[in-house]
Amino acid sequence: MSLSFVEMAESLKPDLIEKKVYPTRLVEAEADSEAFQGWAVRETGSIATLRDRAFTKGDSIILDFGDHHVGRLTLSLESVDARADSPVRLKFIFGEMPCEIAEDFDEYNGWLDRSWLQDEIVNFDVLPGTYTLPRRYTFRYLKIEVLSPARKFKVAFPDIYVTTETSADVTQVPPLPDDMPEDLREMDRIAVKTLQDCMQTVFEDGPKRDRRLWIGDLRLQALANYYTFNNHDLVKRCLYLFAGLRLDGGQVGACVYEKPEPARDDIYLYDYSLFFVSTLYDYDLASEDRETVNELWPIVMEQIELSLLRLDEQGIVKDDASWYCFTDWHEKLNKQASAQAILIYCLKRGLALAERLELQAEAAAIRNHIELASEAALTHLWDERQGFFVSGEDRQISWASQVWMALAEVLDPQANAALLERLFEVNPDIRPMTPYMYHHLIEALITVGNKDKALEQMKAYWGQMARDGADTFWEVYNPEDKKNSPYGSNLINSYCHAWSCTPTYFIRKYFLQP
Ligand code: RAM
User: Fold this and answer.
1) What's the CA-to-centroid distance between 378 and ligand 1, angstroms?
2) 171 vs 17, 163, 167, 237, 424, CA distance in Å?
3) What CA–CA distance (Å, rounded) separates 103 from 119?
4) Can you tell me the distance from the alpha carbon of 289 to that of 283, in angstroms, rounded to the nearest whole number?
5) Ligand 1 centroid to 251 CA: how many Å?
6) 38 located within any domain
7) Ligand 1 site, residue 326, Cβ cutoff 6 A
8) How far apart, in Å, are the Cα atoms of 1 and each of 7, 122, 240, 246, 333?
9) Is 175 inside any structural domain?
10) What gap in Å lies between CA 149 and CA 189, rounded to an integer?
11) Cα 34 to chain center, whole Å?
């Protein structure tokens, strides 16, 4: 009997690799207008001094674990001066970034639930004792506030460590050549660590938040993975989850959950459902696993057909209130042109897959759709006078629309290259907001043959993130507004985010030879 898609996915669930990591120093966060988001971290003592200290109500310490980690905290507690005659009550605050241990979570008023912020009050009944907290945390910094004891005894922390978890096997990552410039080597290292910490039993988008599988993120993680950890089974598992958990209309949903059992979310994003096509295309190239590709091919056709239903009589993606396409976190961005371009981009990958699978009739049908959708884009979205693609009723000109049209290669190669040059010259106001959109900008520059500009942009963006102190690359980064958040508070941003891990893909795919 053949397995259902979800059963197949579950049969591929990986074991997690664990490692014990100890804190490296004691620190404090201090206000510093020069530092990223206004918080600098200053060393207050060596970790060795922790063993000799005893704490009472009102005391607190901040431990620095030296790098970003995902895992479970274990700590040993001892009573000092007298036997513990009451439980010990501790508050733990875990932070990926200094802002999380410096600012008060109770003042948080962002749009996502506060419960994503990682803090906890825990009572420990028996001392001495060694305890492992039940939840997984994502952090570099840990603040411990002692809420009790206040009277007879004090509490000491003779041992404390995190057991990290990931399905990424670091021994698989090929070393970079010795002559790789230091800034790129560093960017690659941070990107690989970002991917590593997001690789759990699925490719999570962010191990702090949302800790789930989104297909837009998966697509980019899978690309980076093929050049680093090269774990094909994890991509395969994720593809089967999306295939097996489609929405009622057949669309691949934007994200799925794993626990308590695999389940879909109800979010449908036009672009994200189409990315099933390109993710399978990339998987096929990397793995040559024809059995899987053949089995999942019908879902590709289904996503294509469903997406074509959104075209109006002119062959353009309808832009009304009844749909949502992600493209980027930018509140003013009109998504019509980028959606049209993503449709064409994915149709082209669908065509290549159909040809590889020798499905002539399907290939012919898709070829026809590519012609019609490209023709429609040139007729209705291309503004010859301005030399840009326009989007929506107000004929908006944005970076995202041009970048995606360049990736879809709607114009001939020369005109495509000129489009991106003009984009930099004119610099329309609606700019890329996230590393996700920057990824596409870099890929578009490489597509038109402008590798120098791609490298320059990568260094200006991810390079600046590294200079701003990133241990892992962030979900949101606007060098002009470093507290920027699509959720109303930088505390809730994810500071280890899947869609930010692609510098390693670019470096290893395009920049190994100078
Ligand atoms: C956010 C996350 C995720 C992304 C979606 C669209 O919730 O950042 O990574 O894919 O938005």
Assistant:
1) 30
2) 12, 18, 12, 21, 40
3) 12
4) 8
5) 18
6) yes
7) yes
8) 12, 48, 17, 22, 48
9) no
10) 43
11) 27
Q: For ligand 1, say whether the CB of 205 is within 6 Å of any of its atoms.
A: yes
- How far is the C-alpha of 305 from the C-alpha of 285, rounded, in Å? 23
CATH number of the domain to which 111 belongs: 2.60.120.260
Q: Which of 214, 221, 333, 437 to mutate to test the pocket of ligand 1 (most atoms within 8 A of CB)?
A: 214
In 38-99, which ranges are E strands? Answer: 39-46, 60-80, 88-95
Tokens standing for residue 372: 């019609």
CB 93 within 8 A of CB 100: yes
Which residue has the CA at smallest separation from atom 3 of ligand 1?
205
Q: What is the pLDDT of residue 514?
A: 56
Supply the pLDDT for residue 323.
84
Helices (H) and strands (E) in the chain, counts: 14, 14
> Residue 67 domain-assigned?
yes
Q: Determine if residue 477 is left, alpha or beta; phi over 0 gives left, psi from -120 to 50 gives alpha, anything else beta.
A: beta
Pull the structure tokens for residue 238: 């994720």
Asked if 452 and 494 count as a contact pair (C-beta separation under 8 A), the reply is: no
Range of the structural domain that residue 86 is part of? 17-166
Give dist(CA 258, CA 317) in Å, integer: 32
- pTM score, whole prediction: 0.97
Distance 120 CA to ligand 1 centre (A): 25
Residues 6+ apart with CB under 8 A from 476: 329, 433, 434, 435, 484, 485, 486, 493
Q: Residue 514 class from Cβ within 10 Å (0-12 exposed, 13-18 middle, 19+ buried)?
A: exposed
In a domain, 142, yes or no: yes
- Ligand 1 near 217 CB (within 6 A): yes
How many A from CA of 300 to the centre of ligand 1? 22
| Cα–Cα nearest to 476, from 269, 196, 488 | 488
pLDDT for residue 1: 57
Rounded to the nearest angstrom, the distance between the alpha carbon of 349 and the centre of ligand 1 is 23
512 and 452 in contact (C-beta within 8 Å)? no
Beta-carbon contacts of residue 266 (< 8 Å; ≥ 6 apart):
247, 253
The residue ranges of the chain whose pLDDT is under 70 are 1, 514
The atom number, within ligand 1, closest to the CA of 255 reads 10
Q: Count up the domains in the chain and report the number.
A: 1
